[in-house]
Amino acid sequence: MEDIPQNKELNVNPKDQPPGTGVNMSEIEALRDHFEQQKANKLKAEQLVSTLSRIKAKEKATRRSPKIGDKKIDDGISSQTAKRSGTNSSNVYTGRSNLLKKKLEEDRAKFKSKMEQEDLCQVSQIVEHIRVQLEDQDKTLQQMHSNFATSAKVPPPVEEVAPAEPDIPPEVKQRIADLELKILDLQENLREKDSVISARTQAITLLSEDMARKGKNTLDTLEETRTQMKTMQANFVALEDRMNEERARLREELDTKKVKLQQLEKNYRAAESARFDLSTRVAELQEKVVLLQTKNIALEEEVTEFSNKTKELSEALENSNKQMIKMKAQFKAKLKAVEEERDMQARKLS
């Protein structure tokens, strides 16, 4: 695209212009002003393109920043939850921390959507302003083209008595030809710039439509996420209530089992004490039997009497042994049942 000619090249004295050439210097001045306006519009369009580039870069940066923020939030939450105990309450804290993280993501998405809407409104205003200016410039160009065509088509007035045409110097003719060539070049440059501005305007329109569509998709996604958050929060509250009820029931059952276990331990200690007493009595009886056997030689006359007593003592000892064996068996059975019940309770609690 050729550069716009400088203003001093268009400064032609209207008196030097020969009659009947069809070139209006006021229209040339207007065309020069129009080119200057086109140049200013080109600068505005370039500024708009740079603004859109910054908006895209900002959007990419905001897409990367939530990942970094989520990582920091996850690290902070994991460091806090690691310090808590391993009881059931850690699950509650984890759920609340997840809710907090999702709330931060929701606020970040709202802020991002608000910034995109503000940028979109600003771009739409700039596009509308440029569109109005382009429409005005198109009207001006059409009017100027029609004026040029009219001035070129209208023949010079015919006088009844045609005076002799003055001789035109070659320099003036060359100057007129140069001016006509410059006008053609300016018209060509104007058409090229109009096509460039039209293409950029179309690109800006498509970009604004794309940003509007992305903004609508973001709002729809945000609304769906908000609905899911409400549902998850309600489910979490119901689950927390059920867990509290189950924990209270298990605590009550554990207290009951502890009371039963204490009673069984008490019975076990009583049985152990009885067994020790029986063992002591058996030992004493055995000592007496040994003593009687040692005295058996010297006391043969008293064998009959002592044999009866020994028989009675042996029967009592046998009965005691049977009772002790029976009590041992019962105690082992009870102890085994208690251990099985305790193992089952421990498996349930784990």
UniProtKB/TrEMBL annotation:
Entry keywords, A to Z: Coiled coil
Superkingdom, taxonomy of origin: Eukaryota
Region annotation (Disordered) ranges: 1-26, 57-97
Segments of skewed composition (Basic and acidic residues): 57-75
Coiled-coil regions listed in the entry: 222-348
Compositionally biased region (Polar residues): 77-97
Protein name: Uncharacterized protein
Source organism (scientific name): Graphocephala atropunctata
